Amino acid sequence: MSSNSFAYNEQSGGGEATELGQEATSTISPSGAFGLFSSDLKKNEDLKQMLESNKDSAKLDAMKRIVGIKKLVYVYLVRYAEEQQDLALLSISTFQRALKDPNQLIRASALRVLSSIRVPIIVPIMMLAIKEAAADLSPYVRKNAAHAIQKLYSLDPEQKEMLIEVIEKLLKDKSILVAGSVVMAFEEVCPDRIDLIHKNYRKLCNLLVDVEEWGQVVIIHMLTRYARTQFVSPWREDDGLEDNEKSFYDSDDEQKEKTDKRKKPYTMDPDHRLLIRNTKPLLQSRNAAVVMAVAQLYWHISPKSEAGIISKSLVRLLRSNREVQYIVLQNIATMSIQRKGMFEPYLKSFYVRSTDPTMIKTLKLEILTNLANEANISTLLREFQTYVKSQDKQFAAATIQTIGRCATNISEVTDTCLSGLVCLLSNRDEIVVAESVVVIKKLLQMQPAQHGEIIKHMAKLLDSITVPVARASILWLIGENCERVPKIAPDVLRKMAKSFTSEDDLVKLQILNLGAKLYLTNSKQTKLLTQYILNLGKYDQNYDIRDRTRFIRQLIVPNEKSGALSKYAKKIFLAQKPAPLLESPFKDRDHFQLGTLSHTLNAKAAGYLELSNWPEVAPDPSVRNVEVIDLAKEWTPAGKAKNENPTKKFYSESEEEEDSSDSSSDSGSESGSESGEEDEEGDSSEDSSEDSSSEPESESGHQSDTENRRAAKRNSKTKGKGDSKDGKKENEKSKTSDSSNAESSSVEESSSDSESESESESESESRKVTKEKEKKAKQDRNRLATDASLLDLDDFNPVSTPVALPTPALSPSLIADLEGLNLSTSSSVISVSTPVFVPMKTHVLLHRMSGKGLAAHYSFPRQPCIFGDKMVSVQITLNNTTDKKIENIHIREKKLPIGMQMHVFNPIESLEPEGSITVSMGIDFCDSTQTASFQLCTKDDCFSVNIQPPVGELLLPVAMSEKDFKKEQGMLTGMNETSATIITAPQNFPPSVILQKVINVANAGVVPSGQDNIHRFAAKTVHSGSLMLVTVELKEGSTAQLIINTEKTVIGSVLLRELKPVLSQG
Predict the structure, then answer these.
(1) Which of 436, 447, 378 is nearest to 408 (CA)?
(2) Which compartments is it annotated to reside in (predicted)?
(3) Pairing mode, if any, of strands 831-832 and 955-959?
C-alpha cells in the first residue's frame, strides 16, 4: 500500500480500523477471515520456510502476512489502549523497537499507537519518539509525527515549548504530505506564534494546490488569519468604486472615515497577491470544504472588486447534498446582505424546490429577500405567491414574513404587498392567516392613517382566528387606532370581555391595554366595560396579568392614592410608537469568520480564533524573505536555464537582468501559481453557464493548475521580452508566464526546493553568479526527475518545440525577429493547415414563423476569420419568405458572456420578396461553448436569437509530423489526457471512415501515421492556440481507444463525449 493511501486513512478516523483490518485479513489464506487468531497454529508454521525461500514471491507473501498481523495488533491497541492502560504499558518496549523498523508503515503505526496511550507517565517517551519521527526520511512518518503532536499537547500542555520546536522544524518540511498536518498541529498548539509562519509563508502558498484536500482547508484558514495581521486592507482602493454597495447600516461618521482613508494611495503587497492568486484554482475543487475555505479567504482578504469570482463556485455547491447546501446558503445569506451584486446573476439558483427540506427553503427565502430590488421584485413576488400555497406550513409562514420585509425595504411595492397580505386573510389555513395578521400589523405601523378599512376588516376576523399571536396583534392595532375606528373599537372590547377568562395570557394583556386606551378616549361608552375587565384581571391566575391590572387601574382611574403619573396616562398609553425595523437574522453574523462553526451557530464556539482587524501600517515584509541556498539553485527545473543562451546578448544589459529575475522567480512573492490572462478568459468562461454539467466542472477543478502551468511555460518560450509593444495584456502574460512551476511539487524531497529561491529582485544578481552551477546541474536533471512525483514529470524536461503563438497579432517584422532569436535548438514545425472538406452543416437561427417571414440560418465555414485571429467565422443566410420587402436588417443588443466579442455584419438596407443573402460575422467564443445571444432586427421588429458553437468548430486544423505529435502528446499527459474505449462494428474501422467521422465532428488536421491501427488528428483552439491532439487506436476485436490530449480539459472532455457516439455507431 502506498504512503499516500495511508495519509488519507489517517484523516478518515473511524473507518481506519475497518480498512486496515480488511487489508490485513485479505492477505491470509482464504480458509478463514480471522485465521490468524484461530487455535490452528500450524497455518503460520511455514512463515520461516517462506522467508528463507529462494523465491522472491514466497518471501513477499510471508512479509505481507507479517505486516498484516502487526497492523491488526496496532489497530486493536489504538482502540483499547485508553481503556486498559496498564496492559498497554507492557507493550511500550515493542513500540520503541517498531519505531526503528525498516517499513515506514510499521514505524508510523507504532508512533500512532504510542501517542494514543493516554498515560502521563510515558510523556517523555512520546516526546522522544515524536522528535525522532520528525526527522524520519519518510514523509508519511513525519506526517504521523505532526498528528502525534496534537495528542501529546492535549495530554500534557506543559510540553508546549518543546512541541513548538518540533512544529518549527516540520514547518520547514518540503513534502506536501506533511504540510497540512503540521499546520493543523500549529493551529492546535500555538496559533498565536505567527512568527513561525513568516519564512514558510511563500512555500505554503506555492504548495497549496498539491496538498491533500483537508490539509488545504486548514492551511487556507491559517493563511487567512495570517494575511489579516501582515497586510494592509485592500478595501481602500475599492471604496471609491463601491459607494453604491456600502453597508446599509453604516453611519455617516463611518463613511467619512472611509473617505479620509481613500485619499491615501494603495499598493497591494506582492505576498498578499501571491496568496489570492494561488488559491484561485482551488475554487474548482471537488471538495466542498476547500471551495468554502477559498470563498471565505476571498471574502475576508481580497479586494472587493475581485471577490465576485467566488459566487459561481458557491452556487455550484448548491448541487451537493442538503448538509453542504445548508452551510453554503448560510454563508451566502451573510454575504448577500453586504454585496447584493455578487449573487444577483444567480437569482434563479435560489428558487425553492418542492423537494428541499424546510431549513434549506428558509435560507433560500432569506437570500431572495436580501437580493430583492426594484428590478426583480415583481418576479420574486410571483414566486412568493406560489410558496404561500405550500403544504409546509412553517415555510408558508416564513414566506409571509419575507413579503413583509420586501414591502418594508422597497417602498414601491409596499401597497401591493399589503393588499396581497389582506387577501391572505381569507385563506382557510389558520397559520397563514395568523402570520399575515402579524406582518400586516407591522406594516400598518408605518402608515396607519391610510388604512382604516384594513383595520376594520381585521376586526371582523376576531370571530374566526384562534391563534393567540394573531388575536393579540389585531387587538393592539385596534387599540392604537381606536380614534380612527370609534364605532368598532367599543364593540370589539365588548366581545373580548365575554371571552376574557378563556383567552390566552398574551391576548388578555392586550384586552387590558385596549380597555385602558378606550377608557381614556371614549369613557362614556366603555367605562363600565373597562371596570368589568379590570375586575376579572384582578383575580386572574397569572401574576403578570394581576400586576398589569393593578398598574392600569391606578393609572387611569383617578383617586386619592393616585400619583402624579395619572395626569399623563393618555400620553403614556397613546404615545406615538416607532415602526418596527424588519431586519435580516444574518445581519450581525458578519463579525464571525465565514465557514466556521461560530458563524453557523451565531455564537462563539470553543476554539474559535477571531480574525484581527487590518493593521494601519503593514509590518516589515522582509521577514518573509528566505536566504537562497546553492543546492536549491541547482534544483531549478529543466528548461529554466535559458538565460545562458548566447543570443540573449542581443538585449540590453537591463533587459538581461530583468529576464534573469523573471526566470528566477519560480515561486517568488510576485509570481505564484496564477494562470495566464488568456486562460482566465477561456477556462473560467467555459463552465460559467448554469446548466453546464458537473462532470466537466469537477474535471477542470483537478486540471486547471496543470493546464495553466503548461500554457504559461509555452507562452514564455515563444514570446520573449520583445512583444512588449503588443500592449498591456501581452506584458502581463509574459510577466507571469514562469510563475507557477513551483506548484509541480513531488510527494517527497523533490516537492518544493525552488519555492523560496526568489523572494526579491536582488536575488536575480545572485542567480547570475550561479550560472556555471546550473550548467553542471543540467547534466544531473534526468536523474533528479526520476524521484516520485504527484504530478507529471514532463514539467522537468526541456520543451524544445514551441507551439504556434496563441496571440498572432504581432507584426511580421517582429515575428521575423523572434524567429531569429529562437530560444530552442529547433525551429517551429507547427502551423495552421487547410481544413479537410466536409459538407457544411446549417443550424436554424430564426424560424420564418417566429421571424414574421424572415428566416435565418447559420453555419461555420471552417475558414480563418477576416475580422480577428481569435474569432470563429460564422456565415448567416437570411431569407425573405414574404411577398413584401424587408428593410433595415441589422443586429443590436448583444448579450455576451464576459470576455466574448462579436463583429457584426453591416446593416442590410432591404431584402426583396423571396430573396436571399449570405453575410459573414466573427465571434470570439473564448474557447467555450457558451451561447452568444443578440437581437436580429428589421425596421419594424426585433427577434432574440442565439448562436451556440459545436465544440469542434472552436478549432483550427494543424499540420505536424508524427514525431512532433508524439513529443507534444508526451507533454500533455496526466490530468491533460482524457480517454474512452469504443465498441464498434468492424466496418467502421477503415481509415477513410474514421477520418470522415472525426473531421465531421472536429475541424482538425490529419497527422501522417506509420502504423495502420493508429489514426492521429491535430488542431489548436481558435482563441488561445492551445493544442488539441486526438488519437484513435484500433484494438483487437471490435474495440478502439479514443484519446484526447489538451490543456483545455473542459473542451477536451466535451469533444470526447461528442466523438464517442459518432465513432461507435454503424
Answers:
(1) 447
(2) Cytoplasmic vesicle, Clathrin-coated vesicle membrane; Golgi apparatus
(3) antiparallel
- Among the listed residues 894, 952, 964, the one whose alpha carbon sits nearest the alpha carbon of residue 923: 894
Helix (H, G, I), strand (E, B) or coil at 980: strand
Name the phi and psi angles at 669, rounded to 5.
Answer: -65, -25
For the chain, percent of residues with pLDDT exceeding 90:
20
CA distances (Å), 352 to each of 323, 386, 694, in order? 16, 10, 20
Question: Does the pLDDT at position 926 exceed 60?
Answer: yes
3-state secondary structure 763-804: HHHHHHHCHHHHHHHHHCHHHHCCCCCCCCHHHHCCCCCCCC
Q: Which helix (H) or strand (E) holds 1054?
A: helix 1049-1064
pLDDT tens profile 265-288: 778 888 999 999 999 999 999 999
Q: How many CB atoms lie within 10 A of CB 86?
A: 7
Buried/exposed code over 880-896 (b: 16+ C-beta within 10 A; e: otherwise): bbbeeebeebbbeeeeb
Q: Among 950, 943, 1041, 1037, which Cα is nearest to 999's?
A: 950
Residues 281, 209 contacting (CB under 8 angstroms): yes
Give the mean pLDDT of the chain. 75
- The side-by-side arrangement of strands in the sheet containing 842-846 is 842-846, 854-859, 872-880, 916-924, 901-903
Predicted confidence at residue 250, as pLDDT, reads 52
Q: Residue written as cell 485619499?
A: 263
**pLDDT confidence of residue 529:** 87
Reduce the secondary structure of 61-75 to three states and give it as a string: HHHHHHHHHHHHHHH
Kind and range of the H or E run holding 873: strand 872-880
Check if the beta carbon of residue 421 is closer than 8 Å to that of residue 450. no
Q: What is the DSSP string of 1018-1047?
A: EEEETTT--EEEEEEEE-STTEEEEEEEES
- Regarding predicted confidence, which is higher, 682 or 363? 363
Rounded Cα distance between 35 and 15, Å, is: 22
Are the CB atoms for 589 and 370 separated by under 8 Å?
Answer: no
Measured between alpha carbons, how far is 394 from 364 in angstroms, rounded to an integer? 14
Q: How far, in Å, CA of 954 to CA of 926, rounded?
A: 9
Predicted confidence at residue 259, as pLDDT, reads 53
Q: Residue 145: name the closest of 153, 158, 136 by CA.
A: 136
Find the farthest-apart pair of alpha carbons in the chain and give their distance in angstroms, rounded: 118
* Measured distance CA(48)–CA(65) in Å, rounded: 12
Residue 463: partners with Cβ closer than 8 Å, 6 or more residues away: 495
- Separation of alpha carbons 675 and 682, rounded Å: 11
CA 269, CA 161: separation in Å to the nearest integer? 32
Look-up of cell digits 399589503: 418
> So what's the pLDDT on residue 377?
87
Q: Residues 808, 811, 815, CA angle at the centre, nearest 5°?
A: 75
Task: Identify which of 394, 392, 395, 391 has the alpha carbon closest to the alpha carbon of residue 368.
Answer: 395
Residue 985 has pLDDT above 80, yes or no: no
For the record, the C-alpha cell of 346 comes out as 444567480
Residue 939 · residue 817 · CB < 8 Å: no
In DSSP terms, which residues pair with 980 in a beta bridge? 1042
**Residue in the structure block whose three cell numbers are 492568486:** 277
Place of cell 494611495: 265
Task: Please name the amino acid found at residue 393.
Answer: K
Q: How far apart are CA 874 and CA 867, in angstroms?
A: 11
Q: What are phi and psi of 809, to 5 degrees?
A: -90, 10
Q: According to the model, what pLDDT value does residue 814 have?
A: 42
Q: Which pLDDT does position 365 carry in this prediction?
A: 92
Give the integer Cα–Cα distance in Å for 134 and 616.
Answer: 39
> Are the CB atoms for 877 and 856 separated by under 8 Å?
yes
The confidence score (pLDDT) of residue 23 equals: 38
